[in-house]
Design goal:
single chain, alpha/beta, Rossmann fold, 2 domains, seven-stranded parallel sheet, 15 helices, 14 strands
């Protein structure tokens, strides 16, 4: 099915062609017509499946019919869990705003930067992408008003709830008008999402594109049995011997992230870390450099496990395993996105063996185990 059959206007179809989009992904094909018909939507689709554009395109289409609002009243609100995702989502909107025959100002607001600068820029915003805490700060300062919101999007809804945003989300919902379109998008259909669905959505259309957890066939997975002491040498060996040019390394703590980066730099491997203790500027600079291919290794906590779109990422390494098998799948899902192949490598210590068996059972996929000492001795 082509984009032209989904009910989008000609100017957006032309923009899609200009940007090289040839056909819609399944979530776009199913969600766009439903959103255009003003129905509430609960969309379940893994990250990297074109989920953001599935609501961006119909929202921009519908904005053509929205009359001018009072200053600092926004018609479209997208709530996201992290700063990085806020910037990414707003960037997708900006990809298409130049093609619109009407003015459409978009803005992302999040913590870690000056609230005063954001307050000054909030006039005549059509699309506001926000993290919950900063949005409430701006509301409490009368910098923005939510009583005119016509379309509300909760993106990465499952993560919003798992990260403890429920109280803030409830406060924001209380400020929204009762009559509005609600769009919830999530990577998984968890019990929390079912609860939100009952409270927030009105006869929603449920669009479930998420494959079973084990449907990660494009990703070649391999595990290395390694002692804790040999993890660092193994990481450096793989990066150098296999001439990796872009690799995302996951750790389980801020301390470990900084330690891995330090060891890589000492061995003349260009690397940066990204975690919650880093400044917003440092996080965005590292992520941008990595996405643009200017940085060889990005070491991260689970802050990046979901919602960050790094196209054509060839390799992910689990330096440490996450606690949850679902988080493992989301980490691995940073590669092999949007029908592109990828590789995921996991370091398994003796202490990790049982947990890794649980992860494989949940994935319904057996991962080949290689002895790290053997391969390093062989070379």
């Amino acid at each position: 099915m082509p984009f032209s059959s989904l009910g989008l206007p000609k100017y957006l179809l032309a923009a899609l062609v200009n940007q090289g989009f040839t056909k819609p992904y399944p979530i776009q094909e199913k969600a766009i017509p439903v959103i255009l018909s003003n129905k509430d939507v609960l969309g379940i689709a893994k990250t990297g499946s074109g989920k953001t554009a599935s609501y961006v395109l119909p929202i921009l289409t519908k904005l053509a019919r929205v009359k001018a609002l009072k200053v600092r009243h926004v018609p479209v609100l997208i709530l996201v869990p992290t700063r990085e995702l806020a910037v990414q989502v707003e960037g997708v909107f900006r990809q298409f705003t130049d093609a619109l025959p009407f003015p459409c100002k978009t803005m992302a607001v999040y913590g870690g930067v000056s609230v005063n600068v954001q307050m000054q820029r909030l006039n005549n915003v059509s699309v506001l992408v926000a993290t919950p805490g900063r949005l409430l700060d701006l509301v409490n300062s009368n910098a923005v008003h939510l009583s005119s919101v016509k379309t509300f999007v909760l993106d990465e809804a499952d993560k919003m709830l798992n990260l403890g945003f429920k109280k803030e989300v409830d406060e924001i919902l209380a400020l929204l008008p009762a009559k509005r379109q609600n769009l919830l998008f999530s990577a998984t259909l968890s019990p929390n999402i079912e609860e939100v669905k009952r409270v927030l959505l009105h006869n929603p259309r449920v669009i479930n594109i998420t494959p079973e957890v084990n449907s990660i066939d494009l990703i070649n997975q391999v595990a290395y049995a390694v002692s804790k002491e040999k993890k660092g040498p193994l990481l450096r060996y793989l990066i150098k011997e296999r001439k990796m040019t872009q690799v995302l390394v996951f750790t389980s703590s801020v301390y470990q992230t900084d330690l891995v980066v330090s060891k890589l730099l000492k061995n003349k491997i260009e690397a940066q870390g990204i975690h919650s203790k880093k400044s917003q500027y440092a996080r965005m600079t590292a992520l941008t450099d990595f996405k643009e291919g200017k940085l060889r290794v990005l070491v991260a906590t689970d802050l990046l496990a979901r919602g960050i779109d790094i196209q054509f990422l060839p390799c992910v390494i689990n330096y440490e395993l996450p606690r949850s098998p679902k988080d493992f799948v989301h980490r691995v899902g940073r590669t092999g996105r949007a029908e592109n192949p990828g590789e995921a490598i996991s370091f398994i210590t003796p202490e990790d063996q049982h947990h890794f068996k649980v992860i494989q059972k949940k994935m319904k996929k057996r991962v080949e185990m290689v002895d790290a000492e053997t391969i390093m001795r062989a070379d």
